Amino acid sequence: MHENRHPVGVPRADGKSLLTSAGSDELVVLRSRFIAYAQSLESSDDLRPWLEDIRRRHPDARHVPYAWRGPSTETRTNDDGEPPGSAGRRCLEALTAAQLYRAGVAVARIFGGKRLGIRNLGIAYRTVAGKAITASGIHPAVVGRTVRCIVPFASLHSAEQALAVVSGTAERTFTSDTAILSAWMEIASIEIFRQRIALVPGARWEAGPEEWR
Q1: Would the CA dihedral through 99, 34, 3, 40 be positive or negative?
Q2: FRET pair for 105, CA 20 to 30 Å: which of 24, 31, 87, 136?
Q3: How far is C-alpha 121 from the chain's CA centre?
Q4: Could you give phi then psi for residue 21, rounded to 5 degrees?
Q5: Per-residue pLDDT reduced to its tens digit, 36-65
Q6: CB within 8 Å of 45: residues ≥ 6 apart
Q7: CATH of 143-212, one of 3.40.50.740, 3.10.50.40, 1.10.10.10, 3.30.70.1150
């Protein structure tokens, strides 16, 4: 199986989007069924088990081409036996058009007995990939950092209140004499947190590298 790898040439993450959930849709062209699946995939390592699951669902599918777009510039496509450029690349076009990252689209094609030609194949794959993405839903990615805050036990409640203003529930771990709170927050919220945590006795904190969710 030949897999192609390609480069893809704040509060908001510069127009980047993520899938809201997994979704699927179907298209029938001249009795051939094109069943598309879209799903969030953090890493290319997630591709194999996902594709194996799709193949198990559709044992009669002749081809399961796919495209994946990673968290930065890496992408992967595979035509899985279809004419070169007619399938995987067209799925990638759907991901790119939606500005999606960390996401994959795969299409199980069940042959209907009539050849469609490269042009019609490309249109079918691009169309059904877009339909699956629409079914999944899209939300804009937001830039933030994971903040780690170390406080004495006596200040734990005050630190949690400071975090609650700008973030959801924090993860808590403990040492013999301190509590460690970790929470992800948007970039715009970090300055608010800094002002509030400065009022908490004995609190120390640091922010990790930028990431988007």
Answers
A1: positive
A2: 31
A3: 26
A4: -160, 180
A5: 999 999 999 999 999 999 999 999 999 999
A6: none
A7: 3.30.70.1150
Within 8 A by CB and 6+ apart from 165, the residues are 192, 193, 196
Q: How far is CA 162 from the centre of its chain?
A: 30
Structure tokens belonging to residue 30: 């001249």
Could you tell me the fold of the domain covering 4-136?
A: Ribosomal Protein S5; domain 2 (3.30.230)
Residues of the chain with CATH 3.30.230.30: 4-136
Looking at the chain, list the stretches that DSSP marks H as alpha helix, in order from N- to C-terminal side: 47-57, 88-97, 118-136, 156-166, 187-197
- What 3-state class would DSSP assign to 136? helix
Q: How many CB atoms lie within 10 A of CB 6?
A: 15
Region of 133 please: left (phi>0), alpha (psi -120 to 50) or beta: alpha
pLDDT digits (tens, 9 = 90+) for 107-128: 999 998 888 999 999 999 999 9
The SS3 assignment for 5 reads: strand
pTM above 0.70, yes or no: yes
Residue type, 181: L
